[in-house]
Amino acid sequence: MPNTRTHAPRGALVFDMRLLGRQAGSALPQTRTVPAPDNLRLELIGVPAGADVALEVRFEAVSEGVLATGTAIAPLAGECARCLAPLNSSVTASFQELYLYADGRHDRHDRHDRHEENEEQDDEERYLDGDLLDLEPVVRDAVVLALPMSPLCREDCPGLCAECGAALADAGPGHRHDGAADPRWAALKQLGDQATNHMDRRAGAIDRQEG
Higher pLDDT residue, 53 or 183? Predict the structure, then answer.
């Protein structure tokens, strides 16, 4: 069957499996461009909501359901974990998931005589909704798992200056703060200097009186 290419409307990650049928071994390749759902991100980086996600997927009919295998390519926006500079890149996430036929759910339970602990596992399985297959949860999980935990603007990013917060990549190798006072101690040092000056003046007055 020829590859079907469509530009899907917002939220369209639902596929109609009537085009595939249930004959084991039949396949349906499809390519879609879909808008990214909300909250497809980690703390420092993610896919902008509504951005185009290129999706290539191959559906294959098997005895128990439909096997979906594919990739999703999405743009990324975020900030560097070291220097906090904005960065833009992309992510490619692969996935493979078996969707079971909903009308075989109870038959499978009877046939295998499942116990309560196996029913908990069944809750994690995915089922078709009639002839419809919703790929959004699978694509979401695959993309989030592929996101970098600590994104970098470049592999050798030197980060920020611990003294002034300047980006060391922009400041250059000569950037340093020789003899600079820690700003956290500046106020305390000022009080100490005032106290020392006061004691010096008092000692000088006592010496003049004794003289």
Answer: 53
Distance of CA 148 to the CA centre of its chain: 6
Decide: 39 and 14 in contact? Cβ < 8 Å: no
Dihedral angle of Cα 22, 27, 32, 36, to the nearest 10 degrees: 60
Specify the higher pLDDT residue, 136 or 169: 136
pLDDT tens column, 18-40: 999 999 999 999 999 999 988 89
96, 69 contact by CB (below 8 A): yes
d(CA 169, CA 172): 6
Give the global pTM: 0.70
Torsions phi, psi for 128 (to 5 deg) = -70, 150
